[in-house]
Amino acid sequence: MSVQELGVSIAPQCAEPPEAHRVFRRDEFWRAIPGYAEVDAETFNSHTFQMRNSVTSVAKLMAVLKNHVDSSFFKDLTDGLSRASMSMRLSPYLVSLVDWDNRYDDPIRKQFLPLGSSILPDHPELHFDSLHEQADAAVPGLTHRYPDRALFLTLDTCPVYCRFCTRSYAVGLDTEEVEKVHLAVNRERWDRAFEYIRVTPQLEDIVISGGDTYNLRPEQLTYIGESLLEIDHVRRMRFASKGPAVMPQKLLTDDAWTDALVSVVNQGRAMNKEVVLHAHFNHPNEITGVTLDAMNSLHRRGVTIRNQAVLQRGVNDNSEVMKLLVKRLSYMNIQSYYVFFHDLVAGVEDLRTTLQSGLDIEKCLRGVTAGYNTPTFVVDTLGGGGKRDAHSYEAYDEENGIAVFFSPTVRPGELFYYFDPVDTLSAEARMRWADEATRKKMMRNAMEEAKR
Description:
Layout: H1 41-44, H2 47-52, H3 58-65, H4 71-82, H5 92-97, H6 107-112, E1 137-139, E2 142-146, E3 149-153, H7 187-198, E4 205-209, H8 218-229, E5 236-240, H9 243-246, H10 249-253, H11 255-270, E6 274-279, H12 289-300, E7 305-311, H13 319-331, E8 334-341, H14 355-365, E9 376-381, E10 386-389, E11 395-397, E12 402-406, E13 415-419, H15 427-434, H16 436-451
Parallel strand pairs: 3-4, 4-5, 5-6, 6-7, 7-8, 8-9
Antiparallel strand pairs: 1-2, 2-3, 9-10, 11-12, 12-13
Helix pairs in contact: 8-11, 13-14
């Protein structure tokens, strides 16, 4: 009996995606921005232009956009930045990809520029460093949570600053809201991390992050890579970077940096060790012909690339958008590895989604492309429980927006939460969250349900 005969309809959001994933824009889109109208393609597509012309303030953005955007938007942005946990930094490439005629709904603008009019109250259970990366740090900047792998935070700067950054406690400049825990480039600190890794033989996998490894100088990238390769029990390492999504030009014009990355990859391969690049694309609009050229260049030189995205409300919490992203990444030989549910981060409650919305999107992704190019949707649980498959919750009180997960490998016997955004709940549920005693009771009830 067919689905139609059973009277079951297929939701529109699960329709097959178009062939748009093969189309990469190669127009001179930046010329629509008044401040870049006279910039030729060779200049715009150099990493030096992108770095030197980063937009780091409202005044600089106004100078670039000129009369293209009205003053009310800049007032809204100024208000948003005054309450943000991240400072402002955008590449000209990103500025040019924003649809400024649709600026309030544009998915790129939403990720990088906070508006006061969109900010929602933080979740009542938000805590600084909600993932406990500092609490699990064996030495400064090295988080050892999982038995065989560690996170190495090499520096605290990035080529751009995402307003949703889970490391807003450390990354970027201090803001009016947050005084950062700084993890600047420091050879002595790095050497302490290498020594810990050297005397901890169960560590086989190191994530090299920050900040962003894009901001390491070539000789620093080489030093870190070769130091880790020299440790016999380290078998795998991943350089993590938002750079390919926000400044792909660097991979095509900064030969010294790209050569350093490829050299470490090749040395690892010769030693039967795996060295890969982890990128961070969240939306298809971040990808252009320059991106394709950069990814093809790395692919030809033998660099494996995986992607980790973050599920964000109004950005990519839509199955059609996510399918197009996954297909476009696949076309560029980038494996979609994870889609993270948005962490509890100050000032970005408007970007978080419910657990159920992500589960629904994941169902629609299955079968769209090969399994190895299909991401797993994961929750990085509050309090240091680590990553859990979103489907693996022990209890989910959807009415009150409380999910509970076990983490038997990382924290045996303990339970960890994920919370839906309060504004997505019913009026009655929002009232319950507003009362601290009732809130604690709901959380205890969810824990008890998970233990049954």
